[in-house]
Design a protein that fits this description.
This protein is mainly α. It has helices at residues 16-30, 37-56, 61-64, 67-85, 88-116, 127-133, 161-166, 170-191, 193-209, 217-241, 251-268, 282-299, 314-322, 324-343, 349-354, 356-360, 365-380, 382-387. The longest helix is centred in the N-terminal third of the chain and has 29 residues, at 88-116. The chain is globular, with a radius of gyration of 25 Å. The protein starts with 15 loop residues before the first helix and ends in an 18-residue tail after the last helix. The model is unreliable at 1-32 (pLDDT under 50).
């Protein structure tokens, strides 16, 4: 009776299984990682909430969705994924290449306007320091300086326009430091996951209580943001490293609400109200953002394709993700412009008498803000493509080859 060759038992050489696994791992690393559409949705919602909050100013908006914590967590996740695939120096250089050109373009427009508006070396201190601090517009290791109290421009832009240009740049400074520290943070995370993740919260508590004091407002602001959002960045890295998946499923839903309530309780003791919210309370921010991000990453359905109900939003979400830096940098200026133009409507008699509600409400300004922001996307967004080594596009909403510059 003949025996087919396929029926014969086979022997696997020693070590072949391990070699196969290593080969599969290398092959997986060579393949381009598909986008996680859930993360794209979170980033788009976070960006929309930032714009909405800066226009409305409602204190409860950062509670409903802690945008900055979410954005730092998503950036930390991407950073950890890149560090697993490429040398740290290449990853850091790539992040800086993507981050800095949009800032330089903003500086070229904004700083030029400030200088023309009369901004110059301050009377306090030596003028040399003012010139040296201008270097932060090139490499924002600390907040770049900007002109406060400059006059408006021909009645079309209010007096706060220079502040609107400079204030959001704290995020770029914090992001830059997180990027520079990420290779060390990833090592610490792998060695001691949860002590590393919780250390920024402990730092925030130490700064809040006065146990830790630091000289100089620049160092203090850097450490304050590290304490407020460092745990979110590390949670994003931990999600990529599989640390969160190793937790029992009941831990996060049980623990996160307790931490969130603690954060809200502390905020309530600090006179939580409109104009004085979580953004002014770093320790409460660290607790609330940590809890919210932990829950969002715990859910993390990892969509490779959109669920049916979200497919209609694909182009909008793709656009927001593709132009996130441009929208963040320019939306505050757009708000100041719209508010300034809106104030001029008080001179229209029938609007003041018959449509008073429209003049005092920020809701009619929202479409105008987004329309002007869309104009900034078209005018300035292409620099994000050049920074990433892509062909510049005017309106990158996901359609192949559409609206190329």
């Amino acid at each position: 009776m003949s025996t087919h060759h396929s029926d014969l038992p086979t022997r696997t050489p020693p070590g072949a299984g391990r070699e196969t696994e290593e080969a599969e791992a290398r092959e997986k690393q060579r393949k381009p990682a598909s986008r996680d559409r859930y993360f794209d949705l979170l980033r788009a919602v976070a960006l929309f909430r930032v714009v909405f909050y800066h226009l409305m100013g409602w204190a409860w908006l950062p509670v409903v969705f802690p945008s900055m914590g979410v954005m730092f967590a998503l950036a930390g996740n991407l950073m950890a994924r890149s560090l697993r695939r490429r040398p740290a120096i290449d990853v850091v250089r790539g992040r800086l290449r993507r981050l800095l050109p949009p800032l330089w373009l903003l500086g070229a427009v904004g700083v030029t306007g400030m200088l023309l508006g009369g901004w110059g070396p301050s009377e306090e201190g030596h003028p040399v320091w003012w010139w040296l601090h201008l270097a932060f517009w090139i490499l924002p290791v600390s907040e770049p300086p900007y002109g406060e109290g400059l006059p408006g421009i021909h009645g079309l832009i209010g007096e706060d326009w220079a502040v609107a240009v400079g204030v959001p740049l704290w995020y770029l400074r914090a992001y830059l430091w997180f990027v520079l520290l990420s290779p060390l943070l990833l090592r610490a995370l792998r060695a001691a996951p949860w002590p590393t993740i919780l250390s920024p919260v402990a730092l925030s508590a130490a700064l809040e209580s006065g146990v830790l004091t630091v000289p100089g407002w620049r160092l203090e602001s850097a450490l304050t943001d590290l304490g407020a959002f460092g745990a979110c960045w590390l949670l994003g890295m931990a999600h990529q490293e599989g640390v969160l998946r190793r937790l029992p499923r009941y831990v996060v839903p049980s623990l996160a609400p307790v931490v969130a309530c603690l954060g809200l309780w502390y905020a309530s003791t600090q006179d939580f109200k409109e104009g004085h919210d979580l953004d002014d309370m770093p320790f409460a921010q660290s607790l609330w953002s940590f809890a919210a991000v932990l829950l969002l990453l715990h859910l993390s359905p990892a969509w490779q394709e959109w669920p049916r109900r979200l497919r209609r939003w694909d182009r909008l979400i793709t656009l927001l993700n593709s132009r996130a830096v441009t929208i963040y940098l320019w939306h505050t200026v757009c708000i100041v412009v719209v508010e300034s133009l809106w104030d001029r409507l008080w001179s229209v008699g029938f609007l003041e008498t018959d449509a008073h509600w429209m003049l005092v409400s920020p809701w009619p300004q929202l479409p105008a803000v987004w329309l002007l922001t869309a104009g900034c996307v078209v005018c300035f967004g292409w620099v994000e493509d050049l920074a990433a080594g892509r062909h510049p596009r005017l309106w990158p909403d996901g359609r192949p080859g559409a609206h190329r510059a």
